[in-house]
Amino acid sequence: MTIFVCVSCRGQGEGEGGSGLALVNALRDKFAAASAEGVAVKPVECLAVCKRPATVAMVGAGKWTYLVGDLTAADHLDEIVEAALSYQRSENGIVPWKERPASFRKGVVARIPPLGFEIQEQQTT
Q1: ∠ CA 10-12-18 to the nearest 5 degrees?
Q2: What angle do CA 116, 118, 124 make, to 5 degrees?
Q3: Residue 29 to residue 117: CA distance in whole angstroms
Q4: pTM score above 0.85
Q5: pLDDT tens per residue, the chain (125 residues)?
């Protein structure tokens, strides 16, 4: 799985990369320390959620993508790691609402279906 972190938006007084770059570095350190395999953290230019920095996208092959905003390294690092590991363990990327950390319950901007997704047609009798 990959966690893309927006590094375009900056709050007042933040330098180039702002809170997103701090989040990238903190997540990389945290996953390395946890020896978490299969999780890549990558900076990305503009996820177009500028009013809710920092924003992350959790993406996995054949899984739904989550776009989550209003995150900071100082306040949400452990919750992002927890959510990422739950996402990684899931079959389809859908993490039940009750199992999501608080910041993810409040911060979800979108949940996007995987490429090739087709809705199951309900049969009528």
Answers
A1: 30
A2: 165
A3: 34
A4: yes
A5: 999 999 997 654 455 556 899 999 999 999 999 888 899 999 999 999 999 989 999 999 999 999 999 999 999 999 999 999 999 999 999 999 999 999 999 999 999 999 999 887 776 66
